[in-house]
């Protein structure tokens, strides 16, 4: 059954989905109007906004008359009677068991965090348009929602949800998505509310929100949550942002398929491409027979194929997200686990010591995407944390801010959530091999450290110790150790095997590869022992864990697979 028929059935049964909406701004007003006039089987039962007058106006613009409520019992009575309600108390919504789903249309990070935590704690589904929150602590909120048995999801209509729908479609027909892209008309990191005031006034939007669109902050959050929801990465800090004044189909010749494969797929954006303001996915297919059909169907000869949606319709599609979540249990877009891409704060102008950083879409900073491991290791300041921070010293224009550059405000919820997120996903970061080597010293918590084997004893395809495959060429024998940690329920000790992979020796020759087990093969040219005679060669690399890890080979990342047995139980 399609969503429209499910909603029609709810309308026919007199059981409309009852929605609580946070926010009464530009997008929220559109949602109220859309549901009131175009979505049978759904009702915006209550709006919570800091200004109740704006919430009342949102209903008036949709042709409805609402009443202000002061307590939980009064809210339940009005919902039962079908009378729209308005309040400035966010707790009334997430504590109300008469509501089927909540929508966050605020764009405010701290406020969004509070209502999302409240919704999760009280068993309410949350559909969020708040990409800023999702890109800052979305992985943690999703984890909490899973534990509570509810759904925390991004929405259809905004670019991330539209990209995810397209991504799922492309995968469902057998292709491998390698790039999820966003089409922009303008990208200027130095735009301010002053430069965007005219545009904002013309369309009835907030100047700061419009500025976040223009300066790249918003698209960075959007692409970060797409990366976190697909497992993709980025090609470079800030994404490539190609200027492309042509059709999006021509981008298949602009991207290097091997570079995309090397990072496990990438999120990106282009400026000026058609159709605007759409989204696109570039994908590959390994089956020669299917490539023939794709060429017949005018998708080209490959190796990259272009799929696109020519528009994103924002609030028009948000109600569909609510229906998917409530009626089908289908989240539109969620983080897969630990964050993979973050949005980091960058100085929009020269910043002076003692200045307090303003909010998103302001005069002082803009956001750009960076890998989560780089962000953590360099202590880069997340854009979602930057507002309200006081500069400890001057920062030059276009310099990325770090935690060492600022003094955080006291007792902020977002800082506590960031710390909790880092702690919760510490094990996940280890599993991905993203923690720095300095974090893995032999201390009392390590069960034992295995000695470095002689070069002659550690060759590709040879086991050392007898149970474990060596994971380097003969020139750089690996250092190996075991770590112990508690996992599962009941908590039991597990053992993880770590191997030092030298970045100079992570390639294997074709002749060597042919003798290696399939699970340990890596393509490339061999480095001979003579070429590796300098001791410094084996000192450059990283600690990686069994199963899957990224191995640095020159400018690109390739994937390796640990071939040993599973973790001892």
TrEMBL record:
Gene3D superfamilies for the chain: NAD(P)-binding Rossmann-like Domain
SUPFAM superfamilies the UniProt entry points to: NAD(P)-binding Rossmann-fold domains
InterPro entries: DRL_cat, NAD(P)-bd_dom_sf, SAF
Domain SAF: 342-407
Taxonomic superkingdom: Bacteria
Entries under Pfam families matching the protein: DRL_cat, SAF
Cross-referenced SMART domains: SAF
CDD domains: SAF_DH_OX_like
Annotated protein name in UniProt: SAF domain-containing protein
Organism: Xanthomonas arboricola pv. corylina
């Amino acid at each position: 059954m399609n969503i429209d028929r499910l909603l029609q059935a709810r309308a026919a049964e007199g059981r409309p989905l009852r929605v609580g909406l946070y926010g009464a701004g530009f997008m929220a007003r559109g949602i109220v109007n859309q549901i009131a006039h175009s979505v049978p089987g759904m009702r915006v039962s209550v709006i919570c906004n800091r200004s109740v007058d704006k919430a009342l106006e949102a209903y008036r613009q949709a042709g409805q008359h609402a009443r202000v409520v002061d307590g939980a019992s009064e809210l339940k009575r009005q919902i039962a009677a079908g009378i729209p309600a308005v309040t400035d108390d966010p707790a009334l919504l997430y504590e109300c068991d008469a509501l089927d789903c909540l929508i966050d249309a605020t764009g405010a990070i701290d406020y969004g965090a509070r209502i999302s935590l409240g919704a999760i704690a009280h068993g309410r589904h949350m559909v969020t348009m708040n990409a800023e929150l999702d890109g800052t602590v979305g992985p943690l909120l999703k984890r909490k929602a899973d534990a509570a048995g509810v759904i925390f999801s991004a929405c259809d209509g905004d670019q991330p949800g539209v990209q995810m729908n397209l991504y799922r479609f492309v995968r469902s027909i057998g292709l491998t998505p390698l790039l999820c892209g966003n089409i922009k008309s303008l990208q200027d990191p130095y735009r301010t509310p002053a430069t965007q005031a005219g545009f904002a006034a013309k369309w009835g939007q907030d100047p700061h929100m419009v500025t976040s669109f223009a300066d790249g902050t918003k698209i960075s959050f959007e692409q970060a949550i797409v990366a976190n929801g697909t497992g993709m990465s980025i090609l470079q800090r800030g994404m490539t942002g190609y200027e492309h004044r042509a059709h999006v189909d021509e981008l298949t010749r602009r991207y290097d398929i091997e570079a995309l494969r090397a990072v496990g797929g990438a999120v990106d954006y282009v400026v000026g491409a058609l159709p605007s303001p759409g989204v696109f996915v570039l994908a590959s297919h390994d089956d020669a027979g299917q490539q023939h059909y794709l060429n017949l169907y005018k998708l080209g000869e490959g190796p990259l194929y272009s799929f696109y949606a020519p528009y994103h319709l924002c609030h028009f599609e948000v109600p569909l997200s609510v229906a998917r979540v409530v009626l089908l249990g289908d989240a539109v877009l969620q983080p897969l686990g630990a964050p993979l891409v973050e949005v980091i704060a960058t100085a929009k102008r020269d910043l002076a010591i003692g200045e307090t950083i303003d909010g998103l879409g302001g005069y002082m900073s803009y956001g750009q995407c960076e890998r989560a491991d780089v962000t953590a290791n360099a202590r880069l300041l997340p854009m979602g944390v930057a507002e309200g921070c006081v500069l400890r010293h001057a920062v030059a224009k276009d310099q990325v801010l770090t935690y060492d550059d600022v003094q955080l405000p006291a007792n902020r919820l977002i800082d506590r959530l960031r710390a909790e997120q880092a702690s919760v996903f510490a094990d996940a970061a280890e599993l991905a091999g993203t923690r720095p080597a300095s974090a893995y010293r032999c201390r009392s918590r390590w069960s034992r450290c295995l000695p470095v084997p002689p070069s002659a004893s550690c060759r590709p395809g040879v086991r050392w110790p007898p149970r474990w495959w060596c994971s380097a060429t003969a020139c750089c024998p690996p250092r190996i150790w075991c770590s112990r940690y508690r996992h599962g329920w009941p908590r039991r000790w597990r053992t993880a095997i770590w191997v030092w992979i030298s970045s100079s020796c992570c390639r294997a020759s074709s002749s060597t590869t042919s003798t290696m087990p399939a699970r340990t093969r890596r393509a490339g040219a061999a480095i001979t022992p003579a070429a590796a005679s300098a001791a410094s060669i084996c000192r450059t690399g990283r600690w990686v864990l069994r199963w899957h890890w990224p191995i640095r080979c020159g400018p690109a990342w390739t994937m390796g697979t640990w071939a040993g047995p599973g973790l001892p139980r």
